[in-house]
Amino acid sequence: MAIKNLLVLVILLGVLGVSVAHPKGLYLNYYKYRCPDAEAIVRRVTVQYVSHEPSLAAALLRMHFHDCFVRGCDGSILLKYPYNETERYAAPNLSVRGYEVVDAVKSALERKCPGVVSCADVLSLVARDAVVVINGPWWPVPLGRRDGRISRKSEVNLPSPLAGIAALKKKFFDKGLNTKDLVVLSGAHTIGISHCSVIHQGIYNFTGKADSDSSMNPRYVRALKRRCNPADNRTIVMDPRSVKKFDSHYFNMVAQRKGLFKSDRTLLDDPETKSYIYTQVATAGSSFNKDFAHSMVKLGFVEILTGNKGEIRKRCAFVN
């Protein structure tokens, strides 16, 4: 309860522009004196990219999530070396994109304030600002993360799109996140884009008998088959109505048994996540933006490096 109350305080003071420390060592306005234009620079470059290509908002949000779930929010997903051995080369991350945005932001910051702003903080801010560009919620981002020096492909064990509710809850609990965070952060799939290969089994051969997943709406299965033939791996949007706009419509899709992934559909298998979904549907997402902001603040604190741990990379793809 104390942590929850502190996060509420962080959000409130962030709106008011007041600096506050978190016990884990992050601060609002952390760069106020060493790089006062840092957040404005991040915002300017991010807006340039995402305004031109709105689908980058989902990509950058996904990158932040994938980073935080492996070794914490330390920018380790950004590392390239040793080649083919770091997190970005793991199978779930091969479709991650948006690295050019992070690199452009970091380059702009290095020109203004060399060696000051970490790549981990850049990624946290870029994810937030990208969502805002497509009319999503704003949330305060306490800063002061340092960059990890280690990135291993073998350590990437993310929540799977094929996972059931028990496995998903354990993944989130292991990172200090709860059941509500699970369903709220799943709502980001409203702007999500995937590939046909991820859903082939669910719509063509779910139990090995040329059948589809019975938890899926049959009309939705037919629509997906029209989009994805068995040999196809084209892209497919997770919420066709709002792929370019951050809103709560994802929950309407899930309630109608039109979740693209098993990890979406299984949210109806748990009383708490199911209740949240139906509440958002009934109230047109009345609390979703606030809830999402709160869960994103929590995500940003997962296993962070501060103080003398880690480093401030000069280039996000390489350790110093």
Automatic annotation (TrEMBL):
One of its GO terms (cellular component) is plant-type cell wall. Heme b binds at H189. Residues 25-320 form the Plant heme peroxidase family profile domain. It catalyses: 2 a phenolic donor + H2O2 = 2 a phenolic radical donor + 2 H2O. It is found in: Secreted. Keywords: Calcium, Disulfide bond, Glycoprotein, Heme, Hydrogen peroxide, Iron, Metal-binding, Oxidoreductase, Peroxidase, Secreted, Signal. Ca(2+) 2 binds at T190, D239, D247. Its cofactor is Ca(2+); heme b. Its EC number is 1.11.1.7. InterPro entries: Haem_peroxidase, Haem_peroxidase_sf, Peroxidase_pln, Peroxidases_AS, Peroxidases_heam-ligand_BS, Secretory_peroxidase. One of its GO terms (molecular function) is lactoperoxidase activity. Binds 2 calcium ions per subunit. This is Peroxidase. The gene is BnaC05g03290D.
